[in-house]
């Protein structure tokens, strides 16, 4: 069985390596590419903590030369992967939420911070952290520091493989990735073929655009994490191969 990995680099390569360790063949075709924006961040002294919902924010801060001035700030990361990358980048105090915006909101609210939160984010947001924390009396300064630019088409080899039913499944990690994937395959896969193609999703939120686009073999990870996605991929591969 060969699966298609759609997430952006460098995360796609990391997923490819993890799949290979599970003896699952895979191919990478990112549907988005990160571009760092010319952002002007406010002085870090005015903030009690940093909120991170993506490893891409850490990479963008490094591109902007803004990472060093922020390393002393406590970080609240949306999940374990982002928390790990934050520690690798040099942040000392990192709290990992449970992989969702709701859990991140709860973690920040329970910390009883003495000042506002700086939220370096992408230009496309799937949730509003500032709105979520407002009832807790916390101000959030959301600063777009990167943009995920959608691809306009798949490489011809990938498009042909999709049309020919050569992928046993597709891995999707974000709602926007799922939306772009649906747009890219609308002229490649008719509805009857979409119903046959298994799609492995990080969460229900990721799955919604796929269901609306007539994908019916939608499988969800038990938890919004890379570990849960690998568990799902392995269980699915074993089911397909009978091993």
TrEMBL record:
The lineage of its organism: Bacteria, Pseudomonadati, Pseudomonadota, Alphaproteobacteria, Hyphomicrobiales. It comes from the Bacteria. The keyword Lyase applies. It comes from Devosia lucknowensis. Belongs to the uroporphyrinogen-III synthase family. This is Uroporphyrinogen-III synthase. InterPro entries: 4pyrrol_syn_uPrphyn_synt_sf (IPR036108), 4pyrrol_synth_uPrphyn_synth (IPR003754), UROS/Hem4 (IPR039793). Pathway: Porphyrin-containing compound metabolism; protoporphyrin-IX biosynthesis; coproporphyrinogen-III from 5-aminolevulinate: step 3/4. GO terms for molecular function: uroporphyrinogen-III synthase activity. Transmembrane segments: none annotated. It catalyses: hydroxymethylbilane = uroporphyrinogen III + H2O. GO terms for biological process: protoporphyrinogen IX biosynthetic process; uroporphyrinogen III biosynthetic process. Keywords: Lyase, Porphyrin biosynthesis. Residues 27-230 form the Tetrapyrrole biosynthesis uroporphyrinogen III synthase domain. Its EC number is 4.2.1.75. Catalyzes cyclization of the linear tetrapyrrole, hydroxymethylbilane, to the macrocyclic uroporphyrinogen III.
């Amino acid at each position: 069985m060969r699966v298609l990995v759609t997430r952006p680099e460098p995360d796609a390569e990391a997923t490819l390596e993890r799949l290979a360790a599970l003896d699952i063949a895979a191919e990478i075709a990112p549907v988005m590419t990160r571009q760092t924006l010319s952002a002007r961040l406010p002085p870090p002294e005015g903030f009690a903590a940093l909120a991170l919902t993506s490893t891409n924010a850490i990479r963008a801060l490094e591109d902007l030369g803004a990472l060093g001035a922020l390393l002393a700030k406590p970080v609240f990361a949306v999940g374990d992967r982002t928390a790990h990358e934050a520690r690798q980048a040099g942040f000392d105090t990192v709290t990992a939420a449970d992989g969702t915006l709701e859990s991140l909101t709860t973690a920040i609210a329970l910390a009883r911070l003495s000042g506002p939160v700086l939220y370096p984010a992408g230009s496309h947001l799937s949730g509003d952290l500032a709105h979520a924390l407002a009832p807790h009396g916390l101000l959030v300064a959301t600063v777009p520091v990167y943009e995920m630019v959608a691809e306009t088409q798949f490489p011809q080899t990938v498009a042909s493989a999709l049309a020919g039913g050569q992928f046993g499944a597709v891995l999707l990690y974000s709602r926007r990735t799922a939306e772009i994937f649906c747009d890219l395959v609308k002229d490649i896969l008719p509805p009857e073929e979409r119903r046959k193609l298994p799609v492995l999703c990080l969460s229900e939120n990721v799955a919604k655009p796929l269901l609306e686009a007539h994908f019916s073999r939608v499988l969800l990870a038990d938890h919004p994490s890379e570990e849960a996605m690998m568990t799902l991929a392995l269980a699915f591969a074993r089911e397909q191969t009978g091993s």
